[in-house]
Design goal:
Number of strands of chain B: 2
Number of domains of chain B: 1
Oligomer: heterodimer
Number of strands of chain A: 0
Strand content of chain B: under 5%
Shape of chain B: globular
Order of helices and strands of chain B: HHHHHHHHEEHHHHHHHHHHHHHHH
Helix content of chain B: over 70%
Strand content of chain A: under 5%
Number of helices of chain A: 7
Chain lengths: 156, 501
């Protein structure tokens, strides 16, 4: 059997399905439902077995269409930075507020992706977010939580 | 029916809804022209905007994006041989050679008129077919629905997997597993939450769509160093030439359009099939029915060869609405996203939608006509100008996609956990994409997971735990037999390929 990344993913999926199946058997159902033809754990148990079946087949059967990914050509650094910025964005958005965090997120993302046209970067972050907020909050009446703007009295 | 059409027209012709069709078509055309960003991403990005609308308006906007994306995809196919969406690959076979001969304007015009005619004709088929099918589907019972969902999931796995059926089936199972997180709909018992309160209500559909499509596509573009906007930059520089279609070419199109629209519509109705298969089948059929002299021109700039796939892929878009509107079961990944959005509005699509929410049912159908007219206006004279808008560098495009994704989740839940979960799912999805694990089966399975469990529960309880319900009714047995045929056909195809190798 030829070991490639697809096989490793299938093995991980097999392990995940085993864990899912184990957890499915642990679901606590009501006593009167225990022997019912269908209860809260029935469908997940079938799913667990289905996961084992398909990933098991993928593991066992030969894989003629092996996908080769050239990792040297992949841009891991920028992708990683972008994910990190998104995580920081997620961590601060509730406390700081939508406007400031979103604008800073956009500005930082443009910068780390290699953009250096400062005026355009500014226009496509702060005023752009303000306009979008006006569209959502002002026109479409979609509530946006923003403690920062509320504290300075811009938002009600 | 007349009353319904009038209700639909009244709803679709309001200023707000016409505006939404226009915005949707415009936005869809732009996204459709960017190779790598398909209609599902475009629709997913629109979801936060639709929160502020009523269900009919929201769905009209998303439907407009869908046609627009398919329409826009044909432009990059013709001008650059770089199809924006898979459904327009067949368009490039004759569209691109025509553009190379200095007839790019003509090719765009043929594509635009064919798409318009295909979309309009299929909207007429939908108009007559959907109400009758709704009435028929009222006789469907739980076992039939369960079998239909199995068929839909198997079919989408078979058709979207590019020969990797097992990978697609693994994605189906993963989608169903994600859908099982949270409270059980009947007993309220929590499952797979690991005592995390944030998971009690389950994983949000919008979160999964944003993560697996919008966000993971953006990350994939960066990771693979792709630049989807590079194609658009070239479009604006291309000399288009005349857009006039002469009498001889029109005569050819008159014959091609009706037959291709029927094929496209019927393929679109089938669960899992859709615009890509429809366009290839229409192209193949057209090649078989034309004269030997015309056959020689296929692949070198044939009018029939361009008109057939363009008619079929737009007809298939309308066709894919049939199972969603009449059965409540989406036939494709794109309509699955729309179904999820409709469920978010509290509207349950299905046979009763026709009676309970006629304004939604009919206004979507009516808005299709309006959408086709708008797309024709957009695509014919405005393409070079739209293409210029597209020359936005990816350094701006990617953060904006991420921004829309996070905003979509933020305005829905105001919860950090959902944002982290979305980023986590997006990272996994990006990695899976690298190894050709398809995402549409995951989305369809996620949307259908709850319904599938409910119908299986009802069927098993009614049959006292026996699995005989699978063959007790002829309809159920027929649907399951079709599923088996699809699986067997797929296995045969895989093995016959290996033997040839």
């Amino acid at each position: 059997m030829n070991i490639n990344t697809t096989k490793i993913i299938s093995l991980l999926f097999f392990i995940f399905s085993s864990f899912y199946l184990y957890t499915a058997y642990q679901i606590q159902v009501f006593a009167f439902d225990e022997n019912a033809p269908f209860n809260a754990r029935t469908f997940p148990i079938y799913l667990g077995y289905a996961g084992l079946f398909f990933s098991g087949l993928k593991l066992i059967l030969p894989d003629p269409n092996t996908i080769k990914v050239d990792h040297k050509n992949l841009e891991y650094k920028k992708t990683g930075i972008l994910i990190l910025i998104a995580i920081i964005y997620g961590a601060t958005i509730l406390k700081v507020g939508y406007f400031l965090t979103t604008s800073l997120f956009l500005f930082a993302s443009y910068y780390f992706l290699g953009e250096r046209r400062w005026i355009l970067m500014f226009l496509l972050s702060f005023p752009f977010v303000a306009a979008f907020m006006y569209l959502l909050h002002g026109i479409l009446d979609i509530y946006l939580r923003d403690p920062f703007l509320q504290s300075i009295g811009v938002m009600g | 029916m007349i009353e319904g059409i009038l209700i639909g027209l009244t709803t679709a012709l309001t200023f707000q809804n016409i505006l939404m069709v226009m915005v949707g078509c415009f936005f869809g055309t732009i996204i459709g022209m960017l190779p790598g960003l398909g209609p599902m991403t475009a629709i997913a990005l629109m979801i936060p905007i639709t929160y502020g609308f009523d269900p009919a308006t929201g769905l009209i906007l998303m439907a407009g994006v869908y046609y627009g994306a398919v329409f826009g995809g044909s432009t990059s196919s013709i001008l650059l041989n770089a199809p924006g969406v898979p459904g327009t690959v067949a368009t490039s076979f004759d569209g691109y050679p025509m553009a190379q001969q200095g007839k790019a304007g003509k090719a765009l015009a043929i594509a635009a008129w064919s798409s318009f005619a295909g979309g309009t004709l299929s909207a007429i088929y939908l108009l007559f077919m959907a109400p009758s099918l709704s009435k028929v589907s009222l006789s469907f019972r739980s076992p039939d629905y369960f079998a239909l969902m199995i068929l839909g999931l198997t079919a989408i796995a078979a058709f979207s997997s590019k020969g990797q059926f097992l990978k697609a089936m693994m994605m189906v199972v993963l989608g169903l597993m994600l859908a099982s997180v949270g409270q059980d709909s009947l007993s309220d018992i929590t499952r797979f939450t690991f005592d995390n309160m944030n998971l009690t209500d389950g994983i949000s559909f919008v979160l999964v769509v944003m993560a697996t499509f919008a966000m993971s596509e953006a990350l994939t573009i960066i990771l693979k160093r792709n630049d989807p906007t590079s194609a658009a930059k070239q479009v604006s520089l291309t000399e288009l030439g005349s857009i006039r279609i002469n009498k001889e070419e029109r005569t050819k199109m008159y014959k091609t359009i009706p037959r291709s629209s029927i094929i496209g519509f019927l393929i679109g109705v089938l669960p899992g099939a859709g615009a890509t298969i429809a366009s290839f089948l229409a192209y193949g059929m057209e090649r078989n029915v034309v004269s030997d002299e015309e056959k020689e021109k296929f692949g070198k700039g044939s009018v029939n060869g361009l008109s057939a796939p363009e008619t079929a892929n737009n007809a298939a878009c309308s066709g894919s609405f049939v199972p969603m509107l009449t059965l409540g079961i989406p036939g494709s990944g794109t309509t699955a996203v729309m179904l999820g959005a409709l469920l978010g509005f509290g509207v349950q699509p299905g046979p009763r939608l026709y009676m309970t929410n006629p304004e939604i049912f009919w206004s979507i159908i009516m808005s299709m006509y309006i959408g086709m007219v708008i797309l024709l206006i957009l695509n014919l004279p405005l393409i070079p100008y739209i293409a210029r808008i597209l020359a936005v560098p990816k350094n701006y495009l990617i953060p904006l996609i991420l921004f829309f994704s996070v905003t979509g989740i933020y305005v829905m839940s105001f919860n950090n956990f959902d944002i982290y979960l979305m980023i986590g799912i997006a990272v996994v999805a990006t990695f899976l994409r690298l190894y050709d694990f398809p995402m549409p089966p995951l989305i369809l399975a996620f949307v259908l997971g709850g319904l599938m469990e409910e119908n299986l529960r009802r069927s098993l309880l009614l049959s006292n735990g026996s699995w005989e319900f699978l063959w007790d009714r002829t309809l159920t047995a027929c649907i399951l037999a079709t599923t088996v045929i699809i699986v067997l056909w797929h296995i045969y195809k895989t093995f016959s390929k290996k033997i040839k190798i």
